[in-house]
Amino acid sequence: MKKLFRYLKPYRFPIGFVLILIFLQSLSDLYLPTLLADIVDHGIVLGDTPYIWRIGGLMLLVAAFGAICSVAAGYLSSRVSAGFGMRLRGEMFRHVENFSLQEFDKIGTASLITRTTNDITQVQQVLTMMLRMMISAPMLCIGGILMAVSKDAKLSLIFVAVIPILALAIFTIVSRGMPLFKALQKKLDRLNLVLRESLTGIRVVRSFNRIEHEKRRFGEANRDLTDTATKVNRIMAAMMPVMMLIMNFSSIAIIWFGSIRIDNNHMQVGDLMAFLQYAMQILFSLMMVSMMFVMIPRASASATRINEVLDTVPDISDPAEPKRGDGRRGWLAFENVTFHYPGAEKPALERISFEARPGEVTAIIGGTGSGKSTLVSLIPRFYDVTEGSVRIDGVDVRELSQAELRAKIGYVPQQAVLFSGSIAENIRYGKEDATDEEITHAAEVAQAADFISEMKDGYDSVIAQGGTNVSGGQKQRLSIARALVRHPEIYVFDDSFSALDFKTDAKLRAAMRRETTEATVLIVAQRVSTVMDADRIVVLEDGAIAGMGTHRELMESSQVYREIVASQLAEEEIA
Known about the structure:
Blueprint: H1 12-44, H2 49-97, H3 101-107, H4 109-133, H5 136-151, H6 157-200, H7 202-207, H8 211-237, H9 239-263, H10 269-310, E1 332-339, E2 349-356, E3 361-366, H11 372-377, E4 387-392, E5 395-396, H12 402-407, E6 409-412, E7 421-422, H13 423-428, H14 436-445, H15 449-454, E8 462-463, H16 472-484, E9 490-494, H17 502-515, E10 520-525, H18 528-531, E11 536-541, E12 544-549, H19 551-557, H20 559-568, H21 571-574
Helix pairs in contact: 1-2, 1-5, 1-10, 2-4, 4-6, 4-10, 5-10, 6-8, 6-9, 6-10, 9-10, 14-16, 19-20
C-alpha cells in the first residue's frame, strides 16, 4: 500500500489537520476519566455541590470540544479518502488507456474493471479508518496505560496478562483470514467475467437457448465467491466475541481486585472508576486496531492488484524524440514484416512486404485466420512488429508519437462499436470539432443519411449502449461515417462492409472513391465483389503473401485467389 500513498500528496494539509483534531479529541477522552474521579472523590464523597457543578461543567466543555474535533476529523478524513479514490481511479484509467492490446489480453477486461472499482473502494475505506485511528488508537492505548499506572500501578499488572492474550487472538485470526482475502478478489474477478460475458452475449445465449447453462455458470462462480466470503467472514466474526470476552473478563478482574484495594485503603472509589474507564479505552483502542487488521489484509490484496496495473509498463510507448514524415502524405509501406503473438509457436504474419499509395485502394483478402486483421492492427500500433517495419510517410510507425500516428488514420474495426449518445455525437467521435455540415456529408457518403432521416429525431436520435437499437449494417455505416468525418491520410476498413447488401456496398464504395481521391485506402474484405475494383489486391494465406496484383493479374497468377473467387462467384461473373 505504500506505493499508493504518493497519491495523497495533494492532501497533506488536510491530513495534518485531521491528525491534529484526532490528537486533541484523544486528549479530551483521556482527560474525562480524571475529571470523573475528581467529582466522585472530592465532590460526591465530601458533598461539595459547587465543586460538582464546576468540574461537571468542565467535563461538558471537554466532551463538547472532543465531539467537535471528532465530527470535523470525520468530515475531513472522508473528503481526503474520497479525493484519494477519485485521483487513483483517474490515474488507473489514464494508465490503462495507454495499454496495448497485449496488456489487455494479459490482465483481462473484467479484472481491470474490478481493480478500478472494487479494489480502489477497499483501499479507500481502509484509508478512512487509518486517518481516524492511526493517531487515536496508539494514543488512547499508550495514554490510557500511563494514566492507569498513575492511578494504581499494582492494579495495572492486569494489562500484562490481558494485552498479550488479545494480541495473540488478533494475530491468529488475521493470519488465517489474509490468504482468503486474496482469493476473494480473484473470485470476484471471475464473477465479473461471467456476468459481463452473459450480458454482452445475451442474444447468442437466447438464440441457442443456453439460458439455463449461463444460470449454472453464474451460479457456480457466485457460489464459489459466496463460500469464500462466508469462510473469511466466519473467521473474522470470531474477532468481536473474543474482544468482548476479554474486555468483560478484564472489567471483572479490575472491579474484583480494585474493590479489594479500596477495602484496604490503597485506592479510592473515583480512582477505580477512572481506572475502569482507562482500561476500556485501552482495550477499545486495541479493538480498533483489530478492526484495522480485519480490513488491512483485504485492502493489502487490493493494493497489490492495483499496483500490478500501475506498475505494468506498456509494451508500446512514444519514442523519446518522435520523428516527422518526409513530406509524403499517406504513403504506407510494409517492409519484410513478421509478427508473433506472445507465447505463439508460429508467426501470425511472416515476411510481409507491399506498398499502399495515396489515391489508390489496396485490398487484403484471404481465408479465415490468414492474418488480415492482424496485419491492419499493426498500422495504428495496436501491436508492434516482431521483425521488419511498418512505415508511414517514410517513417517507421515506432518512431512517430502515437497521437500523431493515429491522427493520420481513420480506422473502422471489424466489429462496429457505437457509444451511448446521439448519432451526431457518435459521428463526431472521429473529429471533436466537426460541424453539422461535415457530419451530414460523412453520413451521406457512408450511405447512412437515409435511415437517419427516417428516425424520429434524425441526427439527435439516441443510440443505446452498444448500438443495440440499430441493425448491424447501420452500425457499420455509422462507424464508416465516423472515420470519413476525420478526413485522414489513411483509411483502414477491417471487413467493414460485411453486413451491407451488395447494392449498398457498391454505392458506398463508389461514393468513397470520390471522397478519398487523395488518401490511401486499405480494405480488408471476405467478399471478392468488394475488392475486385481495387488498384492492388494482397492475397494472404497462413500469414504470408500468396499473391499480389489487380483482379485480372491474380486470376492468372494466384491459385489461392482463383479458389476464393470460384467459391463466391458464378462462372459468368468470373468471365
